[in-house]
Amino acid sequence: MESETTPEGYIVEKCGEAEAEEKNPEIFRFAKRMQIEPKIRNSPEKIEENRGFWRRIFEEKKITKVAAPMVDQSELAFRVLVRKYGAQLTYTPMIHAHLFVTDGTYRRNSMALIEKDRPIIVQFCANKVDTFLSACRLVEGHCDGVDLNLGCPQMVAKRGRYGSWLQDEIELICDMVEAVRDFCQLPISCKIRVRESREETVKYAKRLVEAGASMLTVHGRFREMKGAKTGLADWTRIRDVVDAIQKPYGIPIVANGNIQFPGDVERCIESTGAIAVMSAEGLLYNPLIFRDAGPCHVETWKIAKEYLELAKMYSAGASAMRAHVFRICHHSLLEYEDLRMRVSLEHRCEDFQKIVEELGRRYEQCSKISNFVSKCSKFQV
Ligand SMILES: Cc1cc2nc3c(=O)[nH]c(=O)nc-3n(C[C@H](O)[C@H](O)[C@H](O)COP(=O)(O)O)c2cc1C
User: Fold this and answer.
1) Pocket around ligand 1: residues whose beta carbon is below 6 Å from it?
2) One domain for residues 240 and 212
3) pTM score, two decimals?
4) In the chain, what percentage of residues exceed pLDDT 70?
5) To test ligand 1's pocket by mutation, which of 12, 71, 254 has the most ligand atoms within 8 angstroms of CB?
6) DUS-like FMN-binding domain location, by residue (predicted)?
7) Is the confidence at residue 245, as pLDDT, over 60?
8) Each residue of 253-278: pLDDT tens digit?
9) Based on the structure, what is the number of domains in the chain?
């Protein structure tokens, strides 16, 4: 799906799923035509049940490892891959609520879901109460929860008035969360960034929980920390939210930021007190970071090959496949400029597969000739 600008100013990024008529009966896609039934207010019992939903699931399933929502990158094939290697909860890429509600083609292509990829949360960005509620109600019965993206720092989010750019409009955000709490069957969660002061962050998190958020993911970077200014996430600021919310309110907090190596999961939980951690970039470069056991070294091309088999099975989009191959084989591709060029030009899964097989051949040759295996071409797990 190419980028386009809607009248509301949203830029539609790529979603990661190919625009395919679904042939795989395992896969569920939303229909182009859908009707929203009149809304019915949730009973106090249902609201209470939803409020405790994520705490119950985290405890029952002992969830500590969460794969992040990623535009064009947390598509079905990648989610299935990281689940195999230890992710216990996954998110769809961020979906634009307005388009999901109003544009059947966008809705159909925005995500692909399968039963074995559960529990899963559908993440939306939105800035209108009714639109957000409608989008959440449309996905009822097909996922385990809905999430409001309050973390996206990009200029496109500033123009579209969503993500972290909504954090100063607390009344609007709370109205959106309350509407879903009161009228949607699914539990609502929010993904936030830390604010300038510690007090402000805690106050913000409390407002969201009081409005009905049943889980919060806290990314330990400020809104300004992006691109070259990304820097390290501050886990002590996540700890502030955990101390103020997790025990006192019984609402699980997921810590996000700096999960890059095996071992970081335990370090982060220890340091923040969060119930679980979420990883994005770390998982993109090494989809095995959540793995508990297995060989110490795995050749990166073998993981790329495995991903591409899933990409074929689940019709991943070309840009998602390209980005995954680039990231998974990052170090090897730095060595082989010809293959790097080919990755940037190809579109079809078979062509990416040929490149990865060629990487494997060169890797084998290299190890035979010199008996030297570059550390770069393997994941340490
Ligand atoms: C390629 C990419 C796409 C992302 N898309 C989303 C998104 O759709 N929704 C969201 O809330 N955050 C998104 N993020 C942010 C991540 O979910 C995460 O909060 C951030 O990268 C920090 O985690 P990390 O240090 O593990 O990378 C994205 C990040 C990356 C790298």
Assistant:
1) 68-71, 73, 93-94, 123, 149, 151-152, 191, 219, 233, 256-259, 279-282
2) yes
3) 0.92
4) 90
5) 71
6) 67-351
7) yes
8) 999 998 988 899 999 999 999 999 99
9) 2
